[in-house]
Amino acid sequence: MYKDLSFDELSQLEIELRKQYDNFKSQNLKLDMSRGKPCSEQLELSTDMLDKINSKSTLVSRDGVDCLNYGGIDGLAECKELFAQLFDVPVANVVVGGNSSLTMMFDYISQCYIKGAGAEPWFKQGDVKFLCPAPGYDRHFAICEYFGIEMISVPMLSTGPDMDVAEELAKDSSVKGMLCVPKYSNPTGITYSDETVKRLASMDTASDFRIIWDNAYCVHHLNSQQDVLLNLFDECKKAGNPDRVVMFASTSKVTFPGAGIAALATSENNIKMIKERLTVQTIGPDKINQLRHTACFSNIDNINEHMKKHAEIIYPRFDVVLNGLNTELAPHGIASWGKPNGGYFISLDVLDGCANRVYELCKNAGVTLTNCGATYPYGKDPFDTNIRIAPTFPSVDELEKAVELLCICVKLASVEKYMKTFK
Ligand code: PMP
Question: Which candidate, 79, 145, 190, 211, has a CA 20 to 30 Å from the CA of 329?
């Protein structure tokens, strides 16, 4: 345990670690573990899809919509059916969108801000605040910043956001929303417990409070130990708050990021308002891409089978990182990390005040990590501890090197910190 070492022992260790670090530096590495992007083998799993629709195909949907022309504002019947299975909600509660769930979230928040979520527009009611489980997804925080929505951090626990804190904060009527990644959360990898979901459904809030339920990783299991998430749509209905939740998902990490299909699911009231906006916003989505997807996946079982192939490719990458952390860091009491059953990230917590130092050391030796602070509202990690690792994109060999370096950097930053306590 580093905390038990004397100053002389730490100095000796620092010299050794410096040598190892300089050795890495001289290799001129150029590795990126910063963004959750699928690797090329994963993308290849779906390239057959591109041949499913060609000039000889019948480009008419099951119920006769000509997919070469405008129309089909909320999605083709077969595509809505597929997403209804994914969300586990009735088909009537689904709207299929374009290529990005983030765009759909942005549009929905924008609509509530300008037009309201069933009550006065949010902007007319004064301050607008959102609850942001943290660490969380930086692009969610960016949407809030764009609209000037004040973000209030809610600490993430192993069961999801700390509900004692969330319930207290949600009583404030200027709190209008909450951004959640409920399954294999970005970045901690945890899945919200049943109790958390029930409390989110039933807590006291303003009537126009909305939960943005970003289920981006709903089918993205890494192994057979799959987490199970309670259905917030059903729980909100049971609790008498059917309009509270708007669920989002996409096939960005099932087929192609940027060329997938996104969808949302919500109550009849919310769907009505969303469709009113959509008919002003567009004359119809890309139905050819919807056909392409439903030609490959006619039901959720097909998606689940396909996701097993993704897991086979990325599980070894997670394994390399977790094994590296376990062997190199666990014995020294200088870091803790999650062991997710799915999703795209490993969340590493180093000693307080060390995350930026680790980032800088890694960067100077050629390994890029996600910017420190990115996982917190306003880019400010209050204790400078969290590092998000995205292991899917680099190869296993590259990851082995990157993790070796990362562990050296964590050790070095920890030794530096402990040495300062003697001064
Ligand atoms: N939500 C979360 C939690 C994500 O991690 C990502 C992708 N990194 C997205 C949304 C973006 O999804 P899309 O491509 O559908 O916009």
Answer: 190
Could you tell me whether strands 386-389 and 346-350 are parallel, antiparallel, or unpaired per DSSP bridges? antiparallel
Token representation of residue 151: 């973000």
> What's the CA-to-centroid distance between 59 and ligand 1, angstroms?
29
The neighbouring-strand residues paired with 179 are 212
d(CA 337, CA 190): 11
**CA separation for the pair 334, 35 (Å, rounded):** 24
- Give CA–CA dist 220/36, Å, rounded: 13
Cα torsion 96, 100, 102, 108: sign? negative
Topology (CATH level 3) of domain 2-33+304-420: Aspartate Aminotransferase, domain 1 (3.90.1150)
pLDDT tens digit sequence for 171-226: 999 999 999 999 999 999 999 999 999 999 999 999 999 999 999 999 999 998 99
> Which of 3.40.50.300, 2.30.30.100, 3.40.640.10, 3.40.50.2300 would CATH assign to domain 61-297?
3.40.640.10
Q: Computed over its alpha carbons, how large is the radius of gyration of the chain?
A: 23
Residue 347's closest CA among 404, 386, 393?
386
Distance from residue 172's CA to the centre of ligand 1 (Å):
29
User: Is the pTM above the cut of 0.85?
Assistant: yes
Tell which residue, 345, 349, 351, has the closest CA to residue 418.
351
CB-defined site of ligand 1, < 6 Å:
36, 100-102, 137, 181, 186, 214, 216, 250, 252, 257, 262
| Cα distances (Å, whole numbers) of residue 369 to 21, 79, 386 | 16, 36, 11
Q: What are the residue boundaries of the structural domains of the chain, listed by start?
A: 2-33+304-420, 61-297
pLDDT in tens, 335-385: 999 999 999 999 999 999 999 999 999 999 999 999 999 999 999 999 999
